[in-house]
User: Fold these one by one.
Assistant:
Number 1:
Amino acid sequence: MLLEPAGRRGGVSSAPTSQASRWRHGDLVELLFGGFGLVHDQGNASIMQERISWNYTTWLNIAFLPLAVALLIRFL
C-alpha cells in the first residue's frame, strides 16, 4: 500500500518535490529532442495572426455548457 501525505503539511512537503521532478524531466526531454535534432531553429518560426472565429470547439463548448451547469447545481 502506498503511503500518501495527508493534510496541508503533506501537501506543502510534496509540492516542491513534484515541481522539481517536472523541471528535471522537462530538461531531459529538451536535451533528448535537441540531441536528435528534433527542435527547429527559431529563425523558421512565424506567428500567424488568427482572427476570432466560431469553429467546432466553440460549438462543443456551448453544447456542453448546460451539462456543466446541471452538474454544478446537482453536486454543489
Number 2:
Amino acid sequence: MIRLILWLFFRKEINEMAVIYATLIIKGKKVITDVPEKIREQVKDVLIACDCPELAVEA
C-alpha cells in the first residue's frame, strides 16, 4: 500500500529496501548514515513523503 502511495507521489519505482530502511529509521533502529549510498536518496524521499524530513538529515 505504501509503495502505491509513494509511486503516486513520485511517479517512479521505489526500491523495497528504501521503504524498509525508512521504516527502521522511523522506529529508531537505524539512522540515515546506516543506509547504503546507492539507495540513500530514495530513503530520504520516503522519509520526506512520510512527514519525517528531520530524519532525512545527515549529521
Number 3:
Amino acid sequence: MGLPDQNDDVIDDEISTEQPLVTIDGEPYEITEEGSLGLLAMGYVGVMHWRNERQRIEQSRRDNS
C-alpha cells in the first residue's frame, strides 16, 4: 500500500464537475456560495461542484477588485 503513482488511475477533481448538475425535472441545479444540504447529500460530486463554484466566485471577486 502507499500513495498511488502518477500512472495509477486517480479520480481528478475535474472529472466529477464536467457535467452540470440537474434536477429530476432536467432543470439546472443552482449552486450557491453557501452550499446546501442537497449538495452535501450528493457526496463527493456535490461537494466538488460546490468547491468549484466557490473558487469561481472568489476568482471573480479578485478580478473585479
Number 4:
Amino acid sequence: MLVETLNHARPALSLTDRVRVLVPAHETPALIHRRRIRHVTPLLGRLTRYLGGTYSPTVDRVVFTDGSDARTDLIRVNPSIAAYSIDFDGLCPRHPAPYRAASWSRVLGTEAHRQRARIALILRSSFPTLSTAELSRRLRAAGVPLGEADIKEHEAIAGTQAAIWNLTNGLQLDDRPLTVPVRAVSSDSRTGVATELDPGADGGLQVALAPAATVHLDLTFAGRPQLGGFAVRVHGTSGGAVRLSLQKSGDDRTWGDVAGSTMEIRPGAVADAAGTALADAAGTAVVEYRRPLPAGATVSSATHVRGPVGYDRYRLVVQNESGTEEPIEITSIRFWFVGSPAFRNAERTALLYRYLLGLHASGPDRLRPPAIRLAADRGASAPGMFGPFVLDSDVPCVVAVREGHAGQLFDRDGVVSSGRLEPGAQFYVGAAHSGPYVGAAQSGPRRMPALTVSVPAETTHEARVLLSDSGGENGRMITPLVIAVPVRREVLVDVEVGSRVSTPARLTSTG
C-alpha cells in the first residue's frame, strides 16, 4: 500500500490516479489520500531452457544495415513460456540452462534497463501476446499496407525481435525499400548539367521540365531487378503534354527502349495510361499516372539457378512537348519489381519493425484520471447531506463510502445508490444517520464520510527479465531473455476530507 499525505497546496498523486475532492470555501483542511494498487501476477518458478530442435517452422533470418545478420525465433523456456532475446551478443547455452526472474538492472552491456518501458510496450503490442489475426488488424488500422493476407508467425517474431535488438543493442534492421534506386542522376539534354537526386519522404524522385526540354533520369538499383512498372505524379500539364519512356542498359553505354513503356500525358485526356486525380499538401490538383510493363519486358538473361534477372541500369526519359512557357513538374517517380522482393528483409517483417518502434511516439493509451466534482446545478442540501457530486471519468467507476465509515450514497432523486456510476452521473453523500432524501431535516453539520473511487481492473502485460544461473564465457553472459507476463491491476483511491463540510463549497484539486 502506498500512502501519501498532503494538503491542498501540495499535489503529489500520479496523473493516472489523481482525484479531485470537494472542500468548503471557508476552510483549508488537510487531505489524506491513500492510493492502493493491487497486482495479481503469476509466480515464476524454476525455468529451464533446452537446446532447440532440428527444425522450427517459425525460424526466420533478418539483415541489419551494418551487414550483420541473425536467425530469429521464439526462445522456448520450459514450462511453456515463449521469450525473446534482449542481448544480440549473448551466448546460446550448450546444455540445458536454468533461468529465473531477475531485476532489469542485472542485464549488463545493453540498453535494456533504460528501454524497459518501450520493450514492455512492444511485447504487449505484438506476437505472441496478440494473435497474428489481431496484430494484423491493428497494423491495418494504423495504415500499414499489409495487404489482404495476415502477417505470418515467423514474420511477426522476426519483426518483434529486430525491434527489441534495436532498443537494446542499437542494431538497425535494413528496412530500406529495394525499389528506391541506390543512385539516381538527372541530366538536362539542353544544358548537359547532371544532378544527383535524393528520394523524397515517400521514396519517390522528382524532376522539373522547362518548356521543350528533355530530361534523362539514370537509375541504379541494388542487384539486377526486373521492373514491373513505374508511377509518376504530374503538375502543370494544362498547357502542354509530357512523354515518358523507359530504357535499359547492361553496360551504361548502349541503351535500348523497354517495350510497352511509353506513356503520353496530354491536357484533358490520358493516352495509354490511367490517371488518378489527387491533391498535394497545398490543395493543388495533381494527377498520378501508372504504367505497368509487359511480362518479360526487362529480362536480360535467365539461368536454372537464379531464374530471370533484369538489367544493371535503367533510364527514364521525360520530354516536355509543351509549346507554352509553363514549366512542368514530375514528382513521386516510383518503381515496382517483378519476381524480386521489395525489401532486403521480408516486407511484412520490415513493416512490423517500423510500426513497433513507432509506438513510442504516441505511447500507450491512457485513460483520463477519474474525478469527483461539484455539480454545476447545486440543489438544496440538508445538514448531513453533501453534494450533488458528478463522476468525471472516461469509464464507469465504483464510488463507495470507505469501509469503517458510516454513510450512504444517494442518486439525484434521493434513492439509495449502489455506487456503480456511469461517467457524468450525479450523486449525494449522506453522513451517518442522515435521511434518505435530500430535503430531510437534520440538526447541526456532520462530518462527510470518506469515499473510495475504484477504477475498473485491467489486465495488461509487464515485461520480466529472465537470467541464467549458468556462467558465461570470455566476459559474455548467457543470453538474457524477456517475457510478457499477464498482470491484473486495480487502482483504488481513498478520498477523505479532514474537516466538516457545509455548503457553499469550492472545488480544490490535488493535481
